[in-house]
Amino acid sequence: MNTAVNLTTPIPVDGLRARLGFWLRNDATRLLWPTRCLACEDPGLDGMDLCFACEAALPELEAACPGCALPVPEIGQVCGVCLTARPGALNEIHAAFLYAAPLDRLIPRLKFAGDLAAGRLIAQLMAERLRRAPQPQALIPVPLHRARLRQRGFDQALEITRPLGAALGLPVLDHALIRHRATQEQSRLSAVARRRNLKDAFQAWPKLPLPEHVAIVDDVMTTGATLRAAAAALKRAGVRRVDAWVTARVP
Q1: Averaged over 82-108, what is the pLDDT?
Q2: Residue 7 DSSP label
Q3: Is residue 13 part of a domain?
Q4: Dihedral through CA 210, CA 214, CA 220, CA 226, nearest 10?
Q5: CA distances to 178, 198, 202 from 182, in Å
Q6: What is the CATH number of the domain that holds 225?
């Protein structure tokens, strides 16, 4: 945890834009090689590893339910299912995009091919959109279990969260959550089985001071079972508000 960061003072929007611009301008690789679109390999836009066509095709999620991040007719509207659902551990869910092209090429490129440049691009795209969301005091990546981390060699949520935090001027608490129980691959399970699979899978790091408002960060949300299990662990540790920030919501 970076104790030098003031967790209570909001950063002006102009300051956020300046930090994002500074981060992009000082990426040494951009000074040596021209950008190349990570989704289709065409020449990229200035300061972005994405071409004009893929940037224009990004599946924007302008109006989404804050309870489940599914599209709704108007910004701020809560869907019928969430209106009748019991309150859960997550206060709000914010997805930057729907899971569709070109995100369905970028996210697997990070997650399964280990292309960390894709993680930086995803963070850049998220920062441009999630600065409109209520800003937490810190970001917490959804952790992998240590066995999965050894197998994969990196944590895709952390590789998104670090540059996202740098772009928005938010501290990243990468040891705040522990995935202390190995679980099955969520993508192979039904919604009910996903919730059962993640029961008591997460634990907040003992004795680590946590701010009152945090956002947990992950790449893709399908049912939200992982995010809710992680949020429940943080609520048990005393965090008052837990939001979820995800790259893409499966429609």
Answers
A1: 95
A2: S
A3: no
A4: 50
A5: 11, 9, 10
A6: 3.40.50
Residue 160: pLDDT over 50 = yes
Calculate the alpha carbon distances from 138 to 9, 134, 160, 198, 223 in Å. 12, 12, 14, 24, 24
Number of domains in the chain: 1
pLDDT per position as a tens digit, 27-73: 555 555 678 999 999 999 988 999 999 999 999 998 999 999 999 99
Query: Which pTM value belongs to this model?
Result: 0.81
Residue 119 CA to residue 66 CA, distance in Å, equals 24
137 occurs within a structural domain: yes
Domain that holds residue 185: 60-249
Identify whether 185 is part of a domain: yes
Look at residue 77 and tell me whether its pLDDT is greater than 80: yes
Band (195; pLDDT cuts 50, 70, 90): low
Asked whether residue 19 is domain-assigned, the answer is no
Q: What is the pLDDT, as a whole number, of residue 13? A: 45
State how far the alpha carbon of 21 is from the alpha carbons of 48, 54, 119, in Å. 11, 21, 17
Q: Is the dihedral of CA 96, 130, 175, 20 positive or negative?
A: positive
Higher pLDDT, 188 or 75: 75
Give 137's contacts (C-beta < 8 A, 6+ positions apart).
7, 8, 170, 171, 211, 212, 213, 214
